[in-house]
User: Fold this.
Amino acid sequence: MAVGLYNEIPWIMCKQKEAPPAVINTCNGRHCADTFQGPNGPNKPSLWTENWTAQYRTFGDPPSQRAAEDIAFSVARFFAKNGTYVNYYMYYGGTNFGRTASSFVSTRYYDEGPLDEYGLFREPKWSHLRDVHRALRLAKKALLWGTQSVQKVSTDLEITVYENTNLKVCVAFLTNNHTTKPNNINFRGKDYFLPEKSVSILPDCKTVVFNTESVVSQHNARNFHPSKIASNLRWEMYKENIPTVDNLSQKSQTPLELYTLTKDTTDYAWYSTRIEFNRRDLPMRSDILPVLQVASLGHALLAFVNGEYVGFKHGNNIEKSFVFRKPVQLKPGTNDITFLGQLVGFPNSGAYMEKRFAGPRAVTLQGLMSGTLDITMNSWAHSAGISGEKLQIYSEDGVDKVRWSPLTNDAHGPMTWYKTYFDAPEGKKPVALRLSKMSKGMIWINGRSIGRYWVSFLSPLKQPTQSEYHVPRAFLKPKNNLMVVLEETGGDPESIEVVTVNRDTICSYVSDHFPPHVKSWERKGDEFRQISEDDLKPAARLTCPDDKIIKKIDFASYGDTLGACGNFAVGNCTAPNSVKVVEKACLGKNHCRVPVEKSLFEDSSSSSCSALGFRTLAIQARCSRQGKDNE
Assistant:
């Protein structure tokens, strides 16, 4: 089809080895330098259309991490192997507002990219990837016009050179593929140190300007601070009525398929059936209850019997279908069995998506005196959507269409709406809601949905996949912002916090064998030269965002520091004057530079560090505006 439509335009196809001659086959993945065989034609460039910077999360997933070092390593190797282009997926994932998320995908989409959900730099990923491309640009002439040669030094060590002697340009990629062992490599009569699983880039075939494993860029950690202005929220509630066959207009002999029933207008649909029992149908012993069993194709289900909540069950991203099974209290006479079928997004990939189904498919009552009763064909009534949704009680125009009441003893029950008003938080930082004691539902701010939340779906680490939910400042007014929460299974609205978001915890972690910062060099025409006034030695560099200043040094150690930014710890040794040296260089400044030099830190009491092969300067600092905390 593509070739037939525009045969003069080069189309691309991801992960398609059999692409026709007019179409460029490309790579998606994490390590395309090693997994991609290259384009299937001699005149096609080698393109990497999706370099996965992490992995999007679905509810129930633990954090998805991919180190900046690993991404930079794969990028450097790709260009060393004739790569011409790399695109990051995702560079910025943003937020799945409303019902836009696909099935089970979390509202915070791809938060581990170089830009986090709030548009803040996730360091060192953002800067380290910027720097690998700075290094490649220093070598662009050699990459474009040079002839490639590859020398396999050993199983793990490799030298790739692009050189054009007429143009006097040369770039070398020195690679150590061993995942745990650093090594030395000799190139053109000089020894170069290569950390484990790393590539060093030499834009003049002499000078290491970048090593993928040596992160000289700043690190940071994200913080959530409760707003002082948007606090002490006063909540009111409205409980959704549980319908029966008398209130639902759409009839069918069996339960209808959920996607077809909702038609992409809502996540919810009611199912209800009515059944008569006499006393002889029910168990004779009061301590034995019949069991309601529902086989569902997904995604989630709430069950009610005679208006009373029975339970909740759901599938997951891998297995959407599930079986709900709960003891229920039935009575002689008329019994109403009602379900709320729930969707958590549409399918996002694969063949035959029109054959993906959801909703209850088989319903039985077990443990009756007559045995198991199949009520799948008992005649069902349906309705897409719930009443609060249809009345748009989450909006300024619809909020007064129902009677709200103060929180009562049953305020934490299922299918309950909550509303409050709050003023815009102080400052200009991003805003979020922390929902630590809520369960599952949706939130609207001034009538605009900020997406689904699902805090009760825990990962294998026993933590929610997502606890904070982004509220764009563009959604907010200065005063009296309406917040409406639909809680599906039961939660505590009084625990909801309005928080502001920053990355004011900044760190550096630089060892004395690291190369200097790549911005220390430039290429002017054919000349490759040093432009930095600083010595070409490694140094820790810190810069506060938004013109803030470094107010406090939370941690500093020159030795063998353990941990990561936000959680550093002193190792077996440290120079005792580490904090003093860093405070002198950095306190009260927007940015600072601390050389990683033994002469700055060593004294007679730090001899325990003498056995180390190399030493690391680790710093954690706190930024704030002059005279203020957490701003």
